[in-house]
């Protein structure tokens, strides 16, 4: 049985406001939960219909499917749901490549970018305050455990960049140099912008290396690349050496 | 006013079965509709609350917001909805790079891959029969008009590949050669696999050039790249020259 107050608490964690008050977030599905269990994240409780997890019984509640339905954020609950603590912000020590997001709003895009940082060995992901919360359930789902390996920090992006001007500050802009031909530094802060508006004016002013991903083919296109796929191309290009 | 029979017809187009029976699909939003209007797609009708489109009046219905709500597939309808004809399958004449999808199921992934093909000048996208339908509303939304510039064809993938063995058949596999170091052909069929299971066994057997996108960083990762971001990396690498 899940108590009414537990249901209320867990349900409230779908909202950023309550995640910040309680400093808690939700992970759903056996695979995702195991990734967080074997990381530095601190477990609060697991609710599971069948699957056993390798944790002390006091954290582990076996529940009926109908109870899981009451607390799950998914249309089709995935056998288990866990609550973890949101860690305190670490001080960031930049190292090699860093990605900085300027107002990315779509949870799927942020989740995908976290996976890309994980894949391409980017330790730190800096998010502007208006970027979607990385403990949003859809971000946690889309990041597939990579959130346990990438340090995601929210900060005032302009101040952050001004404090780190010893790193080249890279942005992809239409008028930038062809990324395939430019000489790319081993250490840099790579800025990726908002889905609709790109990089904001005040952040653009701080860019020291402006790059462009060229289009191919004969047809005229009105669209840009999606921010997550553009991040994939940029990180691949920086890493390929 | 939108008649009951129109509402019923349009609503039915959320299902592949009825799209195939009527040979019709839906585009929502002014920007998307304009992309399809200025393409070879044939318009059937536009339902709009305010926005005027540059088409004959017989195709153009001004409707109330509550009527648009009745026919829209979106939670928040976007000012206008249009119905277009699904074109007959063209015969495919392969040229340069072709992408072939082996069971991609997520509409967002297919939409993103269509955008990538558009960006990287890939004219033909071949989809296995179990790949999600490109006229699915979510695919149309995610492809952002690129569907008007990329020729998407569904076929039995094995037969298609057997009929085109004069092209190198490329697949990304764990045991493949480092894509950053391999010599890549200018013409090829690039196969991308299912989200959960990758490329199927019978298709794997046909691969003539097996490539791998290396991971970076010191931490051990359990996850692969998402199929859309992997497609971004592969197409970028083939095009960069």
From TrEMBL, chains A, B:
Pfam family, one: SpoU_methylase
Protein family according to the UniProt entry: Belongs to the class IV-like SAM-binding methyltransferase superfamily. RNA methyltransferase TrmH family.
SUPFAM superfamilies: alpha/beta knot, L30e-like
Protein keywords: Methyltransferase, Transferase
Superkingdom per UniProt: Bacteria
Name of the protein this chain belongs to: RNA methyltransferase
Domain tRNA/rRNA methyltransferase SpoU type positions: 97-235
Source organism of the structure: Christiangramia sabulilitoris
Alphabetized PANTHER family for the sequence: RRNA METHYLTRANSFERASE 3 (PTHR43191), RRNA METHYLTRANSFERASE 3, MITOCHONDRIAL (PTHR43191:SF2)
InterPro entries for this protein: Alpha/beta_knot_MTases, MRM3-like_sub_bind, Ribosomal_eL30-like_sf, rRNA_Methyltransferase, SpoU_MeTrfase, tRNA_m1G_MTases_N
């Amino acid at each position: 049985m899940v108590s009414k107050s537990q249901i209320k608490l867990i349900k409230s964690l779908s909202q950023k406001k309550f995640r910040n008050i309680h400093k808690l977030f939700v992970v759903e599905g056996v695979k995702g939960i195991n990734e967080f269990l074997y990381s530095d994240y601190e477990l609060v409780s697991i609710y599971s219909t069948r699957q056993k997890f390798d944790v002390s019984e006091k954290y582990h509640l076996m529940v009926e499917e109908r109870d899981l339905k009451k607390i799950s954020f998914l249309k089709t609950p995935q056998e288990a749901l866990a609550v973890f603590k949101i860690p305190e912000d670490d001080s960031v020590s930049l190292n090699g490549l860093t990605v900085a997001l300027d107002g990315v709003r779509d949870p799927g895009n942020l989740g995908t970018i976290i996976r890309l940082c994980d894949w391409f060995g980017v330790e730190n992901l800096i998010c502007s305050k208006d970027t979607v919360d990385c403990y949003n359930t859809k971000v946690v789902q889309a990041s597939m455990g990579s959130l346990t390996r990438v340090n995601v920090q929210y900060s005032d992006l302009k101040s952050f960049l001004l404090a780190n001007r010893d790193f080249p500050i890279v942005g992809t802009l239409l008028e930038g140099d062809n990324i395939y031909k430019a000489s790319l530094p081993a250490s840099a802060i790579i800025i990726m912008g908002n889905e609709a508006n790109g990089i904001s004016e005040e952040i653009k002013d701080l860019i020291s290396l402006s790059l462009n991903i060229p289009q191919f083919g004969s047809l005229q296109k009105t669209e840009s690349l999606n921010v997550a796929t553009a991040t994939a191309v940029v990180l691949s290009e920086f890493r390929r050496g």
